[in-house]
Write a structure and sequence with these properties.
single chain; alpha+beta; nine-stranded antiparallel sheet; eight-stranded antiparallel sheet; 20 strands
Length: 385
């Protein structure tokens, strides 16, 4: 942003700053009755409809006469979940969504068949001619079983949604197969938007992240001052037009959950941003999932800082990235990196912040336009011996 560069240039005009090193180093959730839902996985709206935050998958309170009677989370990261529906006296349908990058769908399907057959008394795989399925916009691996329970059919279905598996397990009365299949069509059709989103995410490969933290105290002090000023300037109106300052860089049009990272039993989910054309954006995000809403750390190149460093001939071989966190009206700067930092590094910073001993390098309060600079003796990621 021009105004940010001009403001900072004026502040630096009387300063002789040593060169920066140029070496490149690598919603508040309600609960289903009787259950407490992780607030970083599912959020329930006023009507009881559930949204899976990691994918945007919608699990409404009802599909026709089928009522959602459970939401389940099988891991610490929200990357393996299910929505359970039941119609008393008729049957039940459970929908599963699981992150399976690099997985084997056929192996998963065979495993699902074994689990289903093991739970059904006298399970018998139906003949090929009876292996019917529901109308759908995608191909499903599926198997139907009869049992000792008179007139009961059980089935399991698997399909890829990007690099996630979507699984359906259903039980119904044999004389109500048409209605059961129609309901499964409705349920899977409702997930089309999620499937399209996950397909775009799967088509975009995770970026290379070899950025290294800047730890030199003098450099941190310079960068902290610059970041505080540019962050503050970004919120000020243009001095010539009086119009609000523009967003410093295009924000991602959507976010893709990549992986879960464990930091001393604290779960963190790593995300990458996508541009509108489906390409990977320079923005990353890490979520710490705890007892409350997720704690969100953003990592992105600062266009103003990189422009300023370039004009001062102090730019390095890799773009400068900043790690920032919003806390109320404050934007906190928790780290600077040469290049794009990896998920493990961001997860550690998040953990330290959550634990109360992260180093806040700079902060800007958008309500009071106050800039605070505080350079620690021991930067993030480099604790004292």
């Amino acid at each position: 942003m021009k105004s940010a560069v001009a403001i900072l240039a004026a502040c630096l005009c009387a300063l002789a700053l040593p060169a920066l090193a140029a070496t490149q180093a690598p919603g508040s959730a309600m609960a289903d009755p009787g259950k407490l839902l992780p607030r970083g996985v599912f959020v329930l709206g006023d009507s009881g409809n559930a949204t899976h935050l990691q994918t945007g998958w919608q699990c409404p309170a009802r599909f026709g006469d089928y009522r959602r009677d459970d939401l389940r989370v099988y891991d610490a990261y929200g990357l393996d979940v299910s929505c359970d529906y039941a119609l008393p006296g008729e049957g039940s349908i459970t929908l599963y969504l699981t992150k399976r990058t690099g997985g084997d769908l056929k192996a998963d399907f065979e495993g699902g068949k074994s689990v289903l057959a093991g739970r059904i008394a006298g399970a018998t795989l139906l003949a090929d001619a009876e292996q019917k399925t529901f109308p759908s916009d995608r191909e499903w691996l599926h198997a139907l079983y009869s049992s000792n329970t008179q007139g009961q059919i059980d089935g399991v279905w698997y399909a890829w949604y990007g690099d996630w598996t979507f699984e359906v397990r259903a039980t119904w009365r044999a004389n109500h197969s048409d209605a059961a299949f129609a309901m499964m069509t409705q349920m899977t059709d409702a997930a089309r938007a999620t499937g399209a989103h996950l397909a775009r995410c799967a088509a975009s490969k995770p970026p290379v992240r070899t950025g290294k933290p800047i730890t030199d105290k003098d450099q941190l002090q310079q960068l902290s001052m610059m970041a505080g000023i540019t962050t503050g300037a970004a919120s000020l109106p243009d001095p010539k037009t009086g119009k609000p300052a523009a967003e410093p860089a295009p924000r991602p049009s959507e976010w893709c959950a990549e992986e879960g990272i464990d930091v001393l039993k604290t779960p963190v989910v790593m995300w990458r941003g996508l541009n509108a054309d489906g390409t990977v954006s320079p923005f990353d995000r890490a979520w710490l999932i705890g007892d409350g809403d997720p704690v969100v750390l953003d990592a992105s190149p600062d266009p103003d800082l990189n422009t300023i460093l370039s004009e001062l001939n102090k730019a390095g071989p890799a773009p400068l990235y900043t790690a920032t966190l919003k806390k109320g009206d404050d934007t906190l700067v928790l780290g600077f990196f040469r290049g794009r930092p990896d998920g493990g590094t961001l997860a550690v910073i998040l953990f330290e912040y959550h634990a109360g001993y992260a180093s806040v390098l700079a902060s800007f309060n958008g309500k009071t336009n106050t800039i605070t600079i505080s350079v620690p003796t021991e930067p993030n990621g480099h604790p004292k011996d």
